[in-house]
Design goal:
It contains 7 helices and 9 strands; from the N terminus they run αααββαβββββββααα. It is an alpha+beta fold. The chain folds into 2 domains: about 70 residues, Uridine Diphospho-n-acetylenolpyruvylglucosamine Reductase, domain 3; about 110 residues, Enolase-like, domain 1, CATH 3.30.390.50. A 4-stranded antiparallel sheet has the order 6-7-8-9, sandwiched between helices. The protein has a 3-stranded antiparallel sheet with strand order 2-1-5. The protein has a two-stranded antiparallel ribbon with strand order 3-4. A hairpin with a 4-residue loop joins strand 1 and strand 2. The longest helix has 20 residues. The protein binds flavin-adenine dinucleotide (FAD). The site of flavin-adenine dinucleotide has 17 residues, from helix 2 and strand 5.
Length: about 190
């Protein structure tokens, strides 16, 4: 993400606390089910799951006297395959207009979906998991046709934003395509 200069100076903690919809890391942290540790000025600590960390446009669950001090991530179970897509509409170095993080696992038959985690960024005001798509994929055949069918039935709840990177209509149109491509990339489907 970003340029070498930004990566040398910006921190991942600053990135997620900024809560800008056009950020790369949050979609991946949602999929990794990261835990954000916050510390208050009185020394007390609490853990905020990634799913509850981003609350609104540029807003987080952090209180005024809280600092993010740690991000904890457990390794994904070995059967998961992962992929990430950052789709930019201006330059390659721009922040993403759509960012999609996928972790998907197959049953031992290597054809049936055992579980999927899909994080969405850039499209809506708040980062979130695509739970309806995840639920729709579970137990289904991991073929291009079936994945396409599930997406056509489970992505109608998108509430895209309009900004300098794209209109809401544009985001609504490209998001299902990019989600499908990211799932296919994770599964190495030709
Ligand atoms: C030219 C440019 C290109 C960029 N491209 C990308 C990109 O492609 N992808 C992408 O994801 N991002 C991109 N960024 C954003 C960049 O990743 C963030 O600006 C950076 O990570 C912020 O980190 P920082 O440590 O500088 O935070 P700061 O800018 O210092 O802080 C950001 C906000 O978070 C608060 N904050 C910081 N740390 C904490 C903490 N520990 N606890 C509580 N609050 C805290 C600050 O008070 C502030 O409100 C880009 C930025 C620039 C300028």
């Amino acid at each position: 993400m970003a340029t070498v200069r930004i990566r040398n100076v910006g921190t991942v903690g600053g990135n997620i606390c900024f809560a800008e919809p056009a950020s790369d890391p949050p979609a991946a942290f949602l999929v990794l089910e990261a835990r954000m540790k916050a510390k208050k000025t009185d020394g007390s600590e609490r853990v905020i799951p990634a799913s509850a960390f981003w609350t609104d446009y540029y807003e987080t669950a952090l209180e005024e006297d809280e600092l993010l001090t740690e991000i904890e991530i457990d390794p994904l179970p070995g059967e998961f395959r992962t992929a990430y897509t950052r789709f930019t509409t201006r330059s390659k170095e721009d922040k993403p207009c759509v960012s999609i993080s996928v972790a998907i696992a197959a049953e031992s038959d290597r054809k049936t979906c055992a579980g999927a985690r899909i994080g969405l960024g850039g499209v809506e005001a708040v980062f979130r998991r695509l739970s309806a798509v995840e639920d729709g994929l579970k137990g289904k055949e991991l073929s291009k046709e079936v994945i396409g069918e599930v997406l056509s039935q489970t992505l109608d709840d998108l509430e895209p934003i309009s900004d300098i990177r794209a209109s809401d209509a544009y985001r609504r149109q490209v998001t299902p395509v990019l989600v499908r491509r990211t799932i296919e990339k994770a599964l190495l489907l030709e």
